[in-house]
Each structure stands twice: as C-alpha cells, then as structure tokens.
Design goal:
- The complex is a heterodimer of chains A (93) and B (181).
- Chain A has 93 residues and is mostly helical.
- Chain A is built from 4 helices and no strands.
- In chain A, 72% of the residues lie in helices and 0% in strands.
- The longest helix of chain A is centred in the middle third of the chain and has 22 residues.
- Chain B has 181 residues and is an all-alpha fold.
- Chain B folds into 2 domains: 96 residues, no CATH class; 81 residues, no CATH class.
- Chain B is 70% helix and 0% strand.
- Chain B is globular.
- The chains are: A mainly alpha (93), B mainly alpha (181).
- Chains A and B meet through helix 1, helix 2, helix 3 and helix 4 of A and helix 2, helix 5, helix 6, helix 7 and helix 8 of B.
Chain lengths: 93, 181
C-alpha cells in the first residue's frame, strides 16, 4: 500500500483540524496558559478521549496491535515538558 | 449537506468537533500506518540529515544514529501534509494570508502586548522555538507526538509531559503578561 500517501493525507487532516480549532493562532495558545481560553485543552482532551475509546475498542476486538508506546523516563519527560512549556508560552505555536 | 458545507467554511470550529476529527485521524494513523502522529521528530530527522552532510563527525553520536535517524521519515511526510492541510483549512474559511500585507505578524493580541514590529515576533519565535524543540527532544515528543499520541495509548510519559508543559507554560505566561493586563 502507498503508506507515504496515506501519511500525507492524514497529515493534511491533522493540519486541517488544528487550523479549525484555532491552534494556529498565537492568542489561542497563550490564553490557555493565562487560563482565559480553554479551547486548546478542550481540543486536546476530546481528541484523546475519542482516540482512546477507538484504539482500546479495536484492540479489544483483536483488530489492531499497538505501535511502540512512547518510553517513560520520569525525569526526562517532566524536565522536557517544563522546557517545552516555556517555549510554547513564548512563541505561541 | 448545506449545513455541513457552511460549517466547514466557518473560521473557528467548536474545539470539541475539531477534537473528534483529530481523534479519528489518530485512530486511522495507528490502523493504517502502524505508527503515531508527531511533528517535532521530523525537524530532528531533517537536522540530522543536514548535519551529516556538513559535519559528519559531530553528528556521529547515539542520538542521531539510533534515536532520531536522519532522512525523509514518515514524520517529515506527515509534516508536509500538516502544512498543506492547515493552508486548506485557512482557505476554506477565507483567512489564508499568503502574500498579504500583515501575513508575517497578524495577531491582534501580540501587537497589543509587544508592539507592531514584525522582527520582534520573528526573533521571539525563533528563540522560543529552539527552547521548545530542545524540550521536545529531551521528553521524546511534542504536544502531538507525545501528549496526544502517547496519551491515547495511555502512556504515563504523556501525562507527565502534559503536567510539566502546563506548569511551566502558566508560569511563563504570568511572567510575560504580568503588568500588561
């Protein structure tokens, strides 16, 4: 199968949803950190819940196997997240 | 049908609807390509590729040989798709600013806080993005690659990352916005 083409299409859908949710705008990203506009959180958490239900449902039916789950190393994830947050709040991207 | 078309043309969707779309895309990514969505890794793949061409010895280390192999990976292809998908979405809501006068810096809130100069936004964007990508490199992913893709597989790493991201993001926003509101 033409996996790169599918990837390209999925990327386009990803970009489409990001743009429509307003996550391409500076003020949306910064205002979630100022706790005045929760659109980013609503968007992220809805996506998480929908994908969780779908993926765990499909795995329960034995239709898919999960790809490699991102590795957990507590200090790295936490410190990386802390540095990432600074950059995200500064740039708004 | 007309209702749906009108909704697609709206500038900003309800974040719940857009979130459902992203959730479905996340499921399809796992089902069809057996991999996860992710954006920040692509920059590291490309940086590795350029680095290997210019200074092979400096880039001949663990990170660029095993963790982030250089080359045109699926992440890079995905990123190209994200770019054009975002443009398509802007085009449907007629907010595409390609070639327009204030295309480089059009955010009203930004101008109110930092002034109208474009170079300021570019400088802050450049250095902020270095911090952002560095953090993503340490954590092993960004908002899309770790927080959303990892979170939907219930990876503990994703929730640690989200906690860290919001803790420091809120503090940074407080510092930047302290006296301006």
């Amino acid at each position: 199968m033409a996996v790169p083409l599918i990837t390209l299409f999925l990327g386009a859908c990803f970009g489409f949803s990001l743009n429509k949710a307003g996550l391409t705008k500076y003020h949306k990203i910064v205002n979630v950190f100022r706790l005045t506009d929760m659109a980013v959180l609503q968007f992220m958490m809805t996506a998480l819940v929908v994908a969780m239900i779908g993926l765990y449902g499909l795995r329960g039916l034995g239709l898919i196997t999960f790809p490699t789950v991102p590795a957990t190393y507590i200090v790295g994830n936490l410190v990386g997240g802390l540095i990432f947050g600074v950059g995200m709040a500064l740039t708004g991207y | 049908m007309k209702f749906i078309m009108n909704y697609i043309r709206k500038d900003t969707w309800s974040p719940y609807i857009a979130g459902i779309l992203l959730g479905v895309v996340g499921i399809l990514t796992v089902v069809l390509t057996k991999s996860l969505l992710g954006a920040s890794g692509a920059f590291e793949n490309l940086a590795g590729m350029i680095g290997k061409a210019i200074a092979p010895s400096a880039f001949n280390n663990m990170y660029f040989n095993f963790i982030m192999p250089p080359g045109i990976t699926s992440g890079v292809i995905l990123l190209v798709g994200v770019f054009f998908g975002g443009m398509a979405a802007a085009a449907t809501s007629k907010t595409l600013k390609w070639g327009k006068k204030d295309a480089a810096n059009s955010d009203k809130q930004w101008k109110r806080i930092f002034g109208p100069q474009t170079w300021k936004r570019w400088v802050l964007g450049f250095f902020g993005a270095i911090i952002l990508e560095y953090g993503a490199g340490i954590a092993g992913g960004c908002t899309s690659g770790l927080a959303i893709s990892g979170g939907m597989l219930l990876a503990p790493a994703a929730f640690l990352f989200i906690a860290g991201m919001f803790a420091s993001g809120i503090v940074t926003a407080l510092i930047v916005y302290r006296r301006r509101y």
